[in-house]
Design goal:
Layout lengths: L1 H18 L12 E2 L9 E3 L1 H9 L3 H11 L7 E7 L3 E6 L1 H4 L4 H6 L13 E5 L11 H19 L3 E8 L4 H17 L14 H14 L8 H26 L6 E4 H6 L2 H11 L3 E4 L2 E4 L10 E4 L7 H14 L4 E7 L6 H10 L7 E6 L2 E5 L2 E2 L12 H8 L1 H9 L7 E4 H5 L6 H21 L18 H23 L4 H19 L7 H25 L8
Parallel strand pairs: 5-6, 5-11, 6-7, 11-12, 13-15
Antiparallel strand pairs: 1-2, 2-4, 3-4, 8-9, 9-10, 13-14
This protein binds one RNA strand through helix 2, helix 7, strand 10, helix 12 and helix 17.
Length: about 550
RNA sequence: GCGCCCGUAGCUCAGCUGGAUAGAGUGGCAGACUUCGAAUCUGUUGGUCGUAGGUUCGAAUCCUACCGGGCGUACCA
């Protein structure tokens, strides 16, 4: 509906220009919004006001010209009003509203999809947790955020690939190997003190036991450096396997895993550094190489090759991003924990230095999760081995509730996640509200069948029977769904979908409590059945975008 | 110190990229099941949008300063 009205306005403005009412100019984007007040119409536009400054003319006068030139071929409009400083308010005819139900009924599970992406290739990189321990709840929020952004973009005409960057090189990996090694020695009674700086978690000892069960004591006689390498590799692979399984149980899958170690092996990092040197973005100071990120707005230059001759993590990361673009992606999305925000200017400097547009990279920061149990904070630290794993959360609160809770908030705001609250199967838990509406509708459909109704399609019902305000509200809400998904895709904001779903579920519950769907009047019942069926369809589609199940009964 | 994020109802949060009289949920209070699912619904209570300036037809939204909370500020990843 929004788009139909915007088109109507655009045509009219062009006509005004032809007739000389308005001076030729480049049109501002035509916005059509939902007014807060019902008395301001079903939709409203402020074009007259935005044109006013360009045209140097009074907004109300412009609005009048535009309204006079509108050609409502399809008889959508009940009336148009000009209000306040120059708003154009549209009132849509009731019999036009109901025709919009044709679309969801035809498109079914594809209702909500669009082609705004135009086939652009997008890489979404997310989670990318170091394989030094199992995923914990902090990773979970980034995981669902990335997953849902990928789902939305896929539905919006983008060609999407999901990637996990494995930091399987560097100090933390060595530390992992050492940690397992010392636990391994303990198993054979080598009781030196377990180093403080090593990973303390119980899972380290588990890994050590696995190696003992497989290889016995053979690593005891190796030189520590050789043993570290073996233990590192084993730990990394084993932990990655666990991570993959946990994510899958959480409904999150990847198309590719990109290994940092591979990047080094393929000379990706050396080639990158050479490129930066060739382009003159790098200077030498003693034995270290500095990248002039300040040329791109960073507040200080950054080291890319250490005194020791080893490239930094940063160097590898630019190399990794170069690889993303070299693989042909038009748009790259990184989902990061908010604690990495300081890193943003430097990575932008990196991609600009390799000749890419800033606008091709979108970094989404996901704020940290405050884990609570009954309102009391739960302390977490990977190093100390104190944390609640993703697996534990899944086992305790379930996948649907966990996902929904993470998706309800803007990723940019801090999130309290209360384990007890998320676990409750009651009205305190918003996921059930939407699911319940879906299940309830499914139940109505079942009852209807039992009573001998068919489930009608668009052409089999008399839509003029939909007269109630609540019914119009539902029709309007259904019609809005594609706009919500599109807005969500453009802004990369998944949280809009839970909010919309909640509103739609609320309108439905309210309608249901006030009116009978299946009553004495067979024709009316069939029409209402049709309406409600489409509400269920949209709720189902919305939940699918969120990766949450849409139950038929619960 | 510097940088980023956040500050909206008692609590948890939306606010459609600058629009008209600021909204939900939750909590409190009062109500609705012999009829399609009460995990539901209806009504009511509740706000100087952190503070002070500025930009303009118009600001919770943009700019500046300050206050409060979080997170960064490595030749770690």
């Amino acid at each position: 509906m929004k788009k139909k009205l915007a088109n109507l306005l655009e045509e009219s403005i062009n006509r005004c220009i032809e007739k000389g009412f308005l001076k030729p100019c480049t049109l501002p984007p035509i916005e059509v919004d939902l007014p807060r007040e019902d008395s301001h119409g079903d939709y409203a536009s402020n074009v007259a006001m935005t044109l006013a400054s360009i045209q140097r003319k009074k907004p109300r006068a412009i609005a009048e010209d535009i309204v006079a030139s509108i050609n409502d071929r399809n008889s959508m409009l009940e009336s148009i009003e000009i209000a306040g400083p120059g708003f154009i308010n549209f009132f849509i005819r009731q019999d036009f509203w109901v025709t919009l139900l044709k679309e969801p009924d035809m498109l079914k599970s594809r209702f909500g999809e669009s082609s705004i992406g135009g086939g652009k290739r997008v890489l979404v990189e997310f989670v990318s947790a170091n394989p030094t321990g199992p995923l914990h709840i902090g990773h979970a929020r980034g995981a669902v955020t990335g997953d849902v952004i990928a789902r939305i973009l896929e539905a919006s005409g983008y060609f999407v690939s999901r990637e996990y960057y494995i930091n399987d090189a560097g100090n933390q990996m060595n530390l992992l190997g050492r940690s397992i090694y010392y636990r391994y020695r303990e198993l054979f009674g080598e009781e030196e003190a377990f180093p403080q700086d090593c990973y303390q978690g119980e899972y380290i000892a588990d890994l050590a036991r696995e190696i003992r069960d497989r290889d016995g004591n053979e690593h005891l006689h190796r030189k520590p450096d050789d043993a570290f390498a073996i233990f590192t590799e084993y730990g990394c692979e084993s932990l990655m396997e666990g991570i993959r399984e946990d994510l899958e149980a959480f409904g999150v899958t990847f198309d590719s895993y990109f290994s940092e170690k591979e990047l080094y092996r393929n000379e990706g990092v050396t080639r990158l550094i050479e490129e930066l040197m060739d382009k003159g973005f790098v200077y030498r100071e003693g034995d270290t190489l500095w990248f002039k990120t300040t040329d791109f707005g960073d507040d200080k230059d950054r080291v890319v090759v250490r005194e020791t001759g080893e490239p930094t993590y940063f160097a590898a990361d630019i190399g990794y991003h170069k690889s993303k673009f070299d693989r042909g992606y038009d748009m790259v999305i990184d989902i990061w924990g908010a604690d990495h925000h300081g890193y943003i200017p430097r990575i932008y400097a990196g991609i600009q230095a390799i000749g890419r547009e800033r606008s091709a990279l979108h970094i989404i920061l996901v704020q940290l999760v405050n884990l609570l149990r009954d309102g009391i904070p739960v302390a977490m630290s990977t190093r100390a081995g104190e944390f609640v794993t993703l697996r534990e959360v899944l086992d305790e609160v379930g996948r649907d509730a966990a996902r929904y809770n993470f998706l309800m908030r803007r990723s940019n705001s801090h999130l309290d996640f209360d384990l007890e609250l998320a676990k409750k199967q009651s009205n305190e838990n918003p996921v059930y509200y939407v699911q319940y509406a879906h299940a309830r509708i499914a139940s109505i459909m079942r009852t209807a069948m039992e009573r001998g109704f068919d489930i009608p399609g668009y052409d089999d019902v008399d839509l003029s029977l939909l007269k109630l305000e609540e019914e119009m509200e539902l029709v309007k809400a259904i019609d809005r769904f594609p706009d919500v998904i599109e807005g969500s895709a453009r802004s990369l904001e998944p949280h809009r979908i839970p909010f919309y779903s909640n509103d739609l579920a609320s309108s439905f519950h309210s309608y249901y409590n006030r009116n009978r769907i299946l009553g004495d009047d067979a024709e009316l019942s069939r029409t209402r059945l049709f309406l409600v069926k489409n509400v269920g369809l949209v709720l189902g589609n919305a939940l699918r975008f969120l990766g949450v199940t849409a139950p038929e009964r619960m």
